[in-house]
Amino acid sequence: MSIEEIKQVRLEKMRKLKDFGMDPYPSIVPRDLSLKEAVSDFESLVLDTKEKSITGRIMAIRGQGAILFVVLDDGSATFQAVFKKDTLDEKLFNLFVDAIDIGDFISATGVFFKTERGQESILVSSFTIATKTLLPLPDKWHGIEDEDERYRKRYLDMLQTPELRLLLLKKAKFWDVTREFMKDQGFTEVETPTLEVTTGGAEANPFKTHHKDFDINVYLRISIGELWQKRLMAGNFPKTFEIGRAYRNEGTSPEHLQEFTNMEFYWSFANYKDGMIIVEALYKKIALEVFGQTKFTTRGHSFDFSDEWKKVSYVLEVKKQTDIDVLSATEEEMKSKLEELGVKFEGSNRERLMDSLWKYCRKNISGPAFLVHHPKIVSPLAKE
Fold it and tell me: Does position 278 have pLDDT exceeding 80, yes or no?
């Protein structure tokens, strides 16, 4: 059936729920515990023998006739609900069969028990709809096959792919560990303006908007408060950091978005060598606490954060990989080399050309490594 036909069938099922006297979109439904709590407290729930209510999205329905096995998922865990015709009102059982689909959210009430196969379950004595879905979930086995659709509807991709949900949780843990580490090192977390009169701290195309009250154009920041954090240093804040969003009105790919989260820190009485020490310690802590390991393999590169962190010279590395000396080469020579390498680049000023050459080279370097000895032209506001 087409999506529109499926929608019409589900609208008819929604009408059946209403005719039965069941609101397909109630503001509240019975819920005594999460599915994670049902799993962890199962033994005590079985001994309790009192009826409890759980809620979740229906991810699978199997069985037929007088017994149905339903898998629920509330985002914290999955749990099985068993619907038996002889323990559930017959009209309610038939309503479930006729009006409920995979993807719907329900509240199920009953007692906890183990099936003959040892499956931890709830024996349902009553249920109510929590949300009737009008569109089907992606195919269980193939998910969303169109790549563009996957990235546009990331929430559906995460629903069907547990690894992606885990990735989001790891990202949250990544920033928790970062924040804890910086505070333990004596840094003060700050928030600085995201709307600026002039962009600073990097070279990128900004997003522009208009400030009606002041009648001036302003820009979304392209760095995480570099100019502002330096002002805070002048205001006698010796160690600051900010975790926030940056915005760059440039190209898009699965690994390059116009808005992203970044962390920048500023530290009085320290130099870049001190910065290297603290960054190395931070990444080792993240590797162990977020991923439980220091060894990684990605995109053909294998590396270990516990190894010695090498230092890569910007000028020497570009010359080694492209035979271009960015300090002496002309703009035309750099353009010609980029075209030869098949690198797309925007802008023709010396800084952009140099940066494009470096971005080509960096993909061939495995970490962990520090990039050092940047040409002054690509190091805005840095000390010589």
Answer: yes
CB 360 within 8 A of CB 352: no
Strands 52-62 and 105-114: antiparallel
Q: Domain residues of the chain, as ranges?
A: 3-131, 162-276, 294-384
Give, in words, the CATH class of 3-131. Answer: mainly beta
CA distance 379 to 377: 6
Is it true that 3-131 and 162-276 share their CATH fold?
no
d(Cα 233, Cα 240) in Å, to the nearest integer? 8
Residue 285, token pair as written in the block? 């802590």
Positive/negative CA dihedral, 158, 248, 310, 317: positive
How confident is the model over 233-257, as pLDDT tens digits? 999 999 999 999 999 998 887 777 8
pLDDT on residue 50: 94
> Which class in CATH covers the domain with range 162-276?
alpha beta
User: According to the model, what pLDDT value does residue 381 have?
Assistant: 66
Whether residue 129 contacts residue 24, with contact meaning beta carbons closer than 8 Å, is answered with yes
Rounded Cα distance between 264 and 230, Å, is: 11
Question: What is the mean pLDDT of the segment spanning 206-223?
Answer: 95
pLDDT in tens, 97-144: 999 999 999 999 999 999 999 999 999 999 999 999 999 987 755 557
Q: How far apart are CA 24 and CA 29, in angstroms?
A: 11
* DSSP annotation string for 249-260: -S--BTTB-SEE
Q: Supply the pTM of this predicted model.
A: 0.81
Q: By three-state DSSP, how is residue 129 classified?
A: strand
